[in-house]
């Protein structure tokens, strides 16, 4: 038996401790925001927060989570009451197929918990581990900038003027 | 809105012809990329109403006043569900929140073939808008009969018919005595542009709140009671076969069952992770290259040596044209490209009580049903394919194959729902690739700097091996005896496949366009967003730039001088103006490029301007700005258009600059994102601006694929301006590094 703290609640699961956290979230806890994309830590579709840091849930063995808290996108808000980062993504309509977006939101949340005043370069490198094949990047960046402002900060614009 | 104005605007003018009636020729072309659905039975009706003319095929109104809209098209992440809900709600005059949309389900929706070719709004959207207008009129006529007045004296407001004198009746009560099992009328007008409240507005996507908060939204998220998981066993890539040690797999923990059907094999168990581990064991088995797969010649030149079927698809001769004085002769090519869905293909299937149900992210549930029914030897009416969204597909990826796989497994274990998701390595290894292509352009300028002769030849495999029969599914050739794949064939103009957009929209005195169709496929290929348009527009618009330079003309002015379509000229002018083309100051290693196309020559008009820099020591490129102007006809949702076009620009930058799917002659060489890198945040432009030119009251023009070609050529043109080096082979970043 493994005890986990996910989205503020405790959960007990009976699985092989080597099982990646992603399968426990999706198959045991029915939390579907984090997605399977590669199983290799290359695409970021599975990204969740462990304590305040984004991690690839497809790689992290559930037995290694320990006492740390897990936050998935379900823990940031609901369709009826979306959280601030989700509201920012909705405001910018920052999704096409949307499959990568929960991972993007988790990664953005991790950045904003570290700083609400990142530079544009820091923003882009924070998001870099996550892949989007639809090409929604510009909207995702706008959404994170908006979320930073909503938290009382903001992204420092790049030196290059943008039209 | 006053009652008077509403009466006049909304129900008057019943004899006005359809504003959106497409030309007959285009309505007949069907999907062009797989099955287009059943034949036309009502040629006077617009969009897919011509195939399914009865209103209740499209719209039903419940006793609770909710409106259910049926479409045979699917949501691929392009936002069409929202656009179709806008069309229905606006034309019916109900709040959008009262509209429920049912997308492709073989048991419920009209057979609209494949959702492909940027035709969803042209076909299904047009049908739904006009059906909604008809339904609204019928409801008003019911009220008119009840009240003993003429329907033209009535108006509607948010699901209610009113007479302006205090009488009102809800759609729900009127629907109870209004049959929608009637043929749509061809003379019902759409709502006047000025009266529209939703069409033309950036209505937020109806599906995003669920997707952004983790509610189950994808076939990958389906969890049915007592569902089991499955993994399929295959060689490393298409054209190989694996010999797994099935006895060893049966002993693997977590493997409850091995399903074998001929050479098809899969493992099944209650949990995913043990199956993943067993799959790794299975993949250690020996594999061999399939006999009978044609040898892969060196690419791209090998395309010229392959067996071909050549046809002249367009020709023009004007003997009075001035003689040519300067000539361009150039070859342009692209490698095999991956769709690269972020989520590997997935399906859920259940065989219960003699009925097989498959939940699938296929683009074509109807042809998939035909193929699966043949695969499992069941009558088609006992097989139901229901669309559930997957990750964006950008064309024919593993969606259909995995559905066939899941169906075969489910048939071996009746009563048990089976969920099968491919591994990342399987998606990279088995998805049909976008075909490698080569184009040769020979063009001549006269002494005044005008193009007087243009010859475009293109060499390509088919751009559609979408399933129409069991042999088109991977499982179909693994069962014993195997089914035969459908022989590949070209997609005819005006859509075209390998020759899509090979015919220029420019006016040249003499031209000859030749399509060399290559029937032998050394590598598994099929439809990738834009089909041949990506390479053909890359070639055409690169050559236009080269010729402009040879003529000493500005690239924008040179293009405009050869165009007589005002809408084409408009997008070029608007993109150039918004970009600041005329005041652009070139700097060392930095340049601008522009390119234009009208997708398929009958879809959306799109012009792309890029500001690009080469970082010399690194051989790297930076796209500073992308500015796009797009004309999609009537813009149902301008933000949806912007989203699609922004995405198209970034995706095409990724394909064109960086991507190439490798093959060593025996198998593919790239199995994950390290072997097949795609555009990341570090390399996206600093800004992308999309200007939508709305033309209310004109037909919808397919938009989803319109940016792929122009972006590719604009990048090559900007790099040539920045560096003086003309790169004609994709991926361009590779060519750039070679010249740095």
From TrEMBL, chain A:
PROSITE patterns documented for this protein: 2FE2S_FER_1, 2FE2S_FER_2
Residue stretches making up the 2Fe-2S ferredoxin-type domain: 1-76
GO MF annotation list: 2 iron, 2 sulfur cluster binding; metal ion binding; oxidoreductase activity
Pfam families, per the entry: Fer2 (PF00111), Fer2_2 (PF01799)
Alphabetized UniProt keyword annotations: 2Fe-2S, Iron, Iron-sulfur, Metal-binding, Oxidoreductase
PANTHER family documented for this protein: BLR6046 PROTEIN (PTHR44379:SF6), OXIDOREDUCTASE WITH IRON-SULFUR SUBUNIT (PTHR44379)
Listed name of the protein: Aerobic-type carbon monoxide dehydrogenase small subunit (CoxS/CutS family)
UniProtKB/TrEMBL annotation, chain B:
Protein name, UniProt field: CO/xanthine dehydrogenase Mo-binding subunit
Origin organism lineage: Bacteria, Pseudomonadati, Pseudomonadota, Alphaproteobacteria, Sphingomonadales
InterPro entries associated with the record: Ald_Oxase/Xan_DH_a/b (IPR000674), AldOxase/xan_DH_MoCoBD1 (IPR008274), AldOxase/xan_DH_MoCoBD2 (IPR046867), AldOxase/xan_DH_Mopterin-bd_sf (IPR037165), N-heterocyclic_Hydroxylase (IPR052516), OxRdtase_Mopterin-bd_su_IorB (IPR012368)
Signal peptide interval: 1-27
Keyword Chloroplast among record annotations: no
Source organism: Sphingomonas aerolata
Keyword Cell membrane: no
Domain of life: Bacteria
Pfam families: MoCoBD_1, MoCoBD_2
Gene3D superfamilies assigned to the protein according to its UniProt record, in alphabetical order: Aldehyde oxidase/xanthine dehydrogenase, a/b hammerhead, Aldehyde oxidase/xanthine dehydrogenase, molybdopterin binding domain
GO molecular function: oxidoreductase activity
Keywords (A to Z) from UniProt: Signal
Residues in Aldehyde oxidase/xanthine dehydrogenase a/b hammerhead domain copies: 213-286
């Amino acid at each position: 038996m493994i005890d986990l703290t996910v989205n503020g609640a405790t959960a007990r699961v009976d699985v092989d401790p080597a099982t990646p956290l992603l399968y426990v979230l999706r198959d045991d806890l029915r939390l579907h925001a984090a997605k399977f994309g590669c199983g290799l830590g290359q695409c970021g579709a599975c990204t969740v927060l462990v304590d305040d840091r984004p991690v690839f849930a497809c790689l992290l063995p559930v037995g290694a989570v320990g006492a740390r808290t897990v936050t998935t996108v379900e823990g940031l808000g609901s369709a009826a009451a979306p959280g601030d980062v989700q509201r920012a993504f909705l405001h910018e309509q920052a999704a096409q197929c949307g499959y990568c977006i929960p991972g993007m939101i988790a990664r953005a949340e991790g950045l904003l918990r570290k700083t609400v005043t990142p530079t544009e370069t820091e923003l882009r490198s924070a998001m870099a581990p996550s892949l989007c094949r639809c090409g929604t990047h510009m909207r995702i960046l706008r959404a994170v900038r908006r979320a930073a402002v909503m938290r009382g900060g903001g992204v420092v614009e790049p030196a290059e003027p943008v039209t | 809105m006053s009652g008077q104005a509403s009466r006049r605007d909304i129900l008057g003018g019943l004899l006005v012809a359809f504003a959106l009636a497409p030309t007959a020729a285009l309505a007949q072309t069907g999907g062009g990329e797989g099955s287009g659905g059943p034949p036309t039975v009502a040629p006077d009706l617009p969009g897919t109403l011509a195939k399914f003319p009865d209103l209740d095929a499209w719209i039903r109104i419940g006793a609770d006043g909710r409106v259910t809209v049926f479409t045979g098209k699917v949501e691929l992440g392009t936002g069409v569900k929202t656009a179709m809900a806008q069309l229905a709600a606006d034309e019916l005059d109900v709040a959008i929140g009262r509209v429920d949309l049912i997308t492709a389900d073989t048991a419920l929706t009209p057979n609209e073939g494949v959702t492909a070719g940027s035709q969803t709004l042209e076909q299904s959207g047009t049908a739904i808008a006009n059906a909604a207008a008809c339904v609204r009129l019928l409801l008003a006529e019911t009220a008119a009969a009840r009240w003993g007045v003429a329907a033209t004296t009535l108006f509607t407001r948010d699901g209610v018919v009113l007479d302006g004198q205090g009488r009102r009746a809800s759609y729900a009560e009127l629907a109870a005595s209004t049959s929608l099992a009637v043929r749509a009328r061809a003379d019902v007008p759409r709502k006047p542009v000025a009266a529209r409240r939703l069409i033309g507005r950036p209505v937020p996507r109806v599906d995003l709140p669920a997707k952004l908060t983790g509610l189950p939204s994808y076939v990958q998220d389906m969890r049915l009671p007592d569902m089991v998981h499955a993994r399929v066993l295959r060689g490393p890539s298409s054209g190989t076969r694996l010999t797994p040690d099935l006895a060893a797999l049966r002993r693997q923990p977590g493997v409850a069952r091995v399903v074998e059907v001929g050479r098809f094999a899969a493992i099944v168990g209650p949990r995913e992770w043990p199956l993943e581990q067993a799959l790794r064991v299975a993949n250690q088995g020996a594999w061999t290259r399939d006999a009978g797969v044609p040898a892969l010649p060196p690419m791209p030149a090998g395309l010229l040596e392959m067996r071909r079927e050549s046809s002249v698809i367009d020709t023009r001769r004007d003997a009075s044209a001035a003689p040519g004085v300067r000539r361009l002769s150039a070859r342009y090519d692209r490698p095999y490209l991956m769709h690269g869905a972020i989520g590997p293909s997935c399906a859920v299937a259940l065989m219960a009580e003699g009925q097989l149900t498959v939940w699938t992210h296929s683009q074509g549930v109807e042809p998939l049903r035909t193929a699966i029914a043949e695969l499992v030897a069941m009558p088609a009416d006992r097989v139901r394919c229901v669309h559930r969204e997957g990750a964006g597909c950008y064309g024919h990826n593993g969606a259909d194959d995995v559905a066939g796989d899941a169906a075969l497994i489910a048939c071996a274990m009746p009563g048990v729902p089976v969920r099968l998701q491919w591994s990342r390595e399987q998606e990279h290894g088995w998805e049909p690739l976008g075909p490698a292509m080569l184009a040769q352009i020979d063009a001549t300028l006269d002494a005044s700097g005008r193009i007087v002769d243009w010859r475009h030849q293109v060499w390509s495999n088919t751009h559609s091996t979408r399933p129409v029969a069991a042999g088109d599914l991977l499982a179909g050739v693994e069962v014993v005896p195997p089914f035969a794949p459908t022989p590949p064939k070209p997609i005819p103009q005006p859509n075209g496949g390998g020759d899509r957009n090979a015919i220029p929209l420019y006016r040249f005195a003499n031209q000859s366009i030749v399509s060399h169709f290559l029937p032998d496929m050394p590598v598994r290929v099929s439809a990738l967003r834009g089909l041949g348009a990506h390479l053909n527009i890359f070639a055409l618009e690169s050559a236009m730039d080269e010729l402009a330079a040879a003529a000493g003309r500005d690239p924008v002015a040179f293009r405009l001088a050869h165009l007589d379509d005002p809408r084409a000229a408009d997008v070029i002018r608007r993109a150039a103006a918004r970009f600041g083309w005329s005041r652009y100051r070139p700097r060392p290693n930095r340049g601008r490029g522009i390119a234009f196309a009208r997708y398929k020559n009958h879809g959306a008009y799109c012009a792309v301007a890029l500001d690009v820099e080469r970082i010399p020591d690194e051989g790297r490129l930076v796209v500073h700005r992308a500015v796009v102007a797009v004309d999609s006809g009537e813009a149902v949702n301008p933000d949806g258009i912007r989203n699609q076009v922004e995405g198209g620009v970034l995706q095409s930058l990724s394909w064109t600059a960086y991507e190439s799917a490798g093959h060593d002659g025996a198998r593919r060489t790239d199995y994950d994102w390290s072997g097949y890198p795609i555009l990341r945040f570090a390399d996206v432009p600093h800004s992308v601006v999309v200007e939508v030119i709305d033309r209310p009251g004109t037909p919808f023009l397919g938009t989803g694929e319109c940016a792929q070609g122009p972006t590719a050529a604009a990048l090559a043109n900007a790099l040539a301006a920045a560096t003086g080096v003309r790169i004609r082979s994709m991926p361009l970043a590779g060519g750039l590094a070679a010249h740095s």
